Structures are given as C-alpha cells and as structure tokens.
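Worked example 3 (structure in, sequence out).
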C-alpha cells in the first residue's frame, strides 16, 4: 500500500522529469552504450542484487524471485519433479522465493492456513493472495437488479451477463457500488489470514468495456485507502489502466511476456515477432515509463511445456531480466504445481528497460508536407492536437502532425508505437482527432493518412465512415463526410482520404469517426479473430487553406 508514499513519488517524478528534460538538450543525448536513453533513468533499473537476510525479509523493492502457485499448500510442489529428485512439500518450495503469490481458495476453510502463511513469512517470503476485481468467478443473482434478474454489476450482452469464454467467468463493471463492497469485503477476509497483500486479477476487463475504466481506478484506490496500512497491491497486467493506478499499487505482473498458450494446439509457444515487439514496447513505454519515477517490482510469469522445462527457463528469465522484471516460469496453465527451474538470470539487469520508449525510438525520414501551407504540421507551431483516447502502448497524438505518414514502402512494424496514433478499441464510443489553432484559420481541405499495421505487406485500417467537423458559431458543424460504401463497393483499406469543402473560418477542426465505424478488416492474433471496427487508426493529418 502506497498511501504514505504517493504524493512524495509524484513530486519526485516531477523533479526527475524536469532533470531529464534538461539533459535532453545535450547533443550527445545522454545515451549509454546500448542506446537505452538517459544514464540516470537506466540506472534505476540496473539494480544490484540484494542477498536474503538470515532473519527477516528483503525490502519489498529488492525482491528478485517469486513463484505463482494456486495448488494446495499441504501438497507436493510437483508429483513427478521435472528436474528429477523426490517430490518436495509445496510449502517448503515456496519458502525458497522472495515472493509467493497464492490463491485465496487455499486459505478459506483450512484452520491452519494462517499458520502456513506465518511460516512462509518467518522464512523470509512475502505472501500475496489472489483476488479477482474485474470478473466474477461464478454467475450470481446478487442484488437482482440486472437484466433477467441477475446482479446489477455484470456487463450484459443479449440480456445475459457477458462471459469470458476462456475461463468461464463473467465480466463486471468494477465501478458498481455493489461489486465494490463485495470486493472490499472479500479483500478484508483474505487479509485476516495474515497475508502481506493482494494479487489483483482481471483488470483487463477495461479493454472489453473501456467505459468501466474510471470505476476500475476507483476500486483500486479504495483498496489502497481502506485496507490496513502496509498492504501490498499487485495487479495482473491491466496495462490500459496501469498509469492511472500506479500511485495506489506496489507492483505489477506481466503474465505471458515471452511465451503464451496456443488454444489450437494446446501447447505453450514462444511469442511471435510482432507480439514480442508489442510486449517490449508495453514494458518500456507503459510500465517502465511509470517506474522511472515510482519504482516497484514487476513480476514476469511465463509458461513452458513440461518436455522443454529442463532447458527453456534460462532464455525467458534472461529476457525478462533485461527489462528489470523478476521472472518465473511454470509448465502448468492452472498454476497447480510450483516447479523450481533452478536458474538465475544471466543477462544484464535493466539493460533494455527503456530501449523502446516512444520519445527515443521511431526515427524516420519525413515524407509529409512540412511547408507553411500545411496548417497542421507541428513545426509550424500554429495548433495543438488532442485525441479522445489512445490505445495502450501508443505514444499519443504526437505522430499525427509530425511530418511523416506510413506507406506500404516505408512502414516499419518495429516503430508502430511512434508511426501512428490509435484510439482505444471501443465500438460504443465515437473517436476523434481535434486541432485547435491559436488564431482562426481559413480551411478548405483536410488529408487523413490512415495507419498501416503488419510486417511485409501491411493492412491499412481506414475508417468505414468519417467526417470533418468545424467549430462554427460555438457549435460543431459537419463540413465534409466520407462514407465507406460507394454503391455496393466497400472502400476499406484506403491509405489516404481527402476531404474538400467550401472554405470556412474556424479555430477548431476535428476528424470524427462515429462509434463502430472503424475498418471492417479482421486480423488474427494467437488464433483469436479481432475486429477493429472500434478503433480509429491514423498516421498523419494535413490541413490546408
């Protein structure tokens, strides 16, 4: 729990940000020999390893090993140890790690559970227990005020609570007051067993229903403020919401960083190049961007097939360690065994921690209109650009008027975070890009270069429907429209849409994409079809008189 440190860390963050900004004026750019950004920032992640004390525990920020185990505390860690030897009691295995993340079901109903927790703590292990906050693990009537008599806190689809088909759980609105009281009540009952903190799962519900994000932030804030002082809060993923809750939590888990589960084959597989690039960008541009000013441990959980477990962990441990993530690998998707890979990271800790920060990557040769005729170009300093939202990992509105637009020839999939802007993926929300001018401008043309994605021959994710709106007489007025359908032909995957209209005078103009009118093209990621109709995806905007 960070109640006592929150304001201090924010103040330090502001001071550090100013210091880094000053260093940025240095023509040598302050980069170290691996190009990771400022030396001062990288050193935060290149931490020395601290030996475990003979008595007591390491400081929380010094932990460098963890295990995630949802099986019985009284059972064996493995029935047949994959690395040989005799089965070891799970409780004894957990003691070998600085942090043990266990499931709350291991506590309830066991009269000796508090004793086991204390035994782990006495051995020098922090004990963190599971708590779901974005999904309900069963279907309940609750207050009965939802559709068809179910609880009011569910997210509904066709009159029924919407289910997460991968796990059989049900998505909830974390801001619902009934749900919040349920979560807070369960959190307090878990803490009665003496655990050090809570492992907050299912925060990714905000990606299913973006409008629940405010409620998710509020729930995490309440957990931080209403639970006993010193309670550790560690969310699992939740990257979309992380920057808003970082002040309330004490760590984060990055599950499936280097490997993932393949539903089709039933095996764990290495992340492909595109997925790995995305994860690395999230690691640097979201997690470590925050941790520069508000340091906390990151726990990196990966999965390896049992047949490969004797030789594969070293690779995933080293990969995580270069981003200053504390690694652990298991071969059970259900986390009901806790093998010890018996390896330590061999890579340079934190050496890639800031390697993909959006303000130090994505260098490109300008190909857009950087002349004074382009009123939108950032270099002309005529306007500011704002957006309704930003998809996790992207660098915000900056790419929209930087003088570069991606084409099939120059698109670099490794630079996706800085080549383009993408909105959140939300079919229930309008998306927009707004340009605000310091002085009114005469405008009659807007060019929108839609964003490409994918290696090789990329796909352009142009809107099916969009329009140009201008602020005239104190109200937004439509001055030009683009419709995805021309007769029976669907105009998808367009690189450029030109909007021309009678000259208007305004100090605010925006490109507006109505809800659900993103590109109809589908892509496949890990065998799951993803439709991008809820995303507005743009590489560059040009505006002319």
């Amino acid at each position: 729990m960070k109640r006592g440190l929150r304001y201090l860390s924010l103040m330090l963050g502001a001071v550090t940000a100013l210091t880094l900004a000053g260093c940025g004026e240095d023509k040598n750019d302050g980069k170290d020999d691996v190009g990771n950004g400022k030396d001062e920032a990288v050193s935060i992640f290149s931490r020395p390893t601290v030996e475990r004390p003979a008595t007591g525990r390491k400081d929380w920020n010094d932990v460098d090993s963890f295990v995630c185990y949802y099986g019985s505390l009284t059972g064996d860690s493995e029935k047949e140890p994959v690395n040989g030897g005799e089965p070891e009691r799970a409780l004894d295995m957990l003691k070998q790690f600085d942090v043990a993340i266990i499931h709350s079901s291991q506590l309830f109903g066991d009269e000796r559970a508090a004793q086991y927790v204390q035994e782990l703590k006495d051995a020098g292990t922090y004990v963190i227990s599971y708590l779901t906050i974005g999904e309900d693990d069963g279907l309940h009537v609750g207050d009965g005020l939802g559709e068809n008599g179910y609880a009011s806190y569910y997210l509904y689809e066709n009159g029924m609570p919407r289910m997460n088909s991968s796990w059989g759980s049900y998505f909830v609105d974390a801001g619902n007051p009934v749900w919040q009281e349920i979560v807070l009540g369960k959190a307090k009952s878990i803490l009665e067993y003496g655990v050090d903190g809570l492992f907050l799962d299912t925060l990714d519900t905000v990606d299913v229903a973006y409008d629940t994000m405010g409620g998710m932030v509020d729930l995490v804030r309440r957990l931080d403020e209403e639970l006993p002082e010193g309670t550790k809060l560690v969310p699992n993923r939740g990257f979309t919401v992380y920057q808003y809750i970082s002040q309330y939590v004490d760590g984060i888990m990055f599950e499936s960083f280097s490997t993932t589960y393949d539903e089709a084959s039933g095996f764990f597989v290495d992340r492909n190049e595109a997925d790995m690039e995305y994860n690395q960008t999230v690691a640097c541009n979201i997690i470590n961007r925050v941790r520069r000013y508000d340091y906390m441990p990151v726990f990196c959980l990966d999965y390896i097939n049992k047949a490969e477990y004797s030789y594969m962990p070293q690779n995933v441990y080293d990969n995580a360690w270069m981003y200053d993530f504390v690694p652990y690998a298991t071969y059970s998707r259900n986390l009901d065994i806790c093998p010890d890979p018996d390896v330590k990271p061999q890579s340079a800790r934190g050496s890639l921690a800031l390697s993909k920060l959006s303000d130090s990557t994505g260098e490109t040769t300008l190909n857009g209109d950087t002349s004074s005729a382009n009123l939108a170009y950032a270099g002309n300093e005529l306007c500011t650009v704002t957006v309704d939202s930003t998809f996790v990992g992207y660098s915000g509105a900056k790419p929209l008027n930087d003088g570069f637009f991606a084409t099939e020839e120059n698109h670099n999939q490794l630079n996706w975070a800085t080549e383009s802007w993408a909105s959140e993926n939300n079919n229930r929300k309008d998306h927009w890009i707004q340009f605000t001018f310091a002085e009114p401008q005469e405008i009659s043309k807007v060019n929108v270069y839609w964003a490409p994605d994918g290696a090789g021959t990329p796909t352009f994710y142009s809107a099916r429907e969009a329009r140009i709106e201008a602020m005239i007489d104190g109200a937004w007025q439509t001055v030009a429209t683009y419709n995805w359908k021309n007769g029976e032909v669907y105009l998808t995957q367009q690189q450029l849409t030109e909007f021309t209209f009678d000259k208007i005078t305004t100090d605010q103009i925006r490109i507006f994409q109505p809800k659900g009118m993103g590109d109809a093209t589908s892509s496949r990621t890990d065998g799951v079809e993803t439709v991008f109709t809820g995303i507005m995806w743009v590489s560059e905007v040009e505006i002319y008189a």
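Notes: Residues 273-291 form the longest helix (19 residues). Residues 253 and 299 are 4 Å apart (CA to CA).
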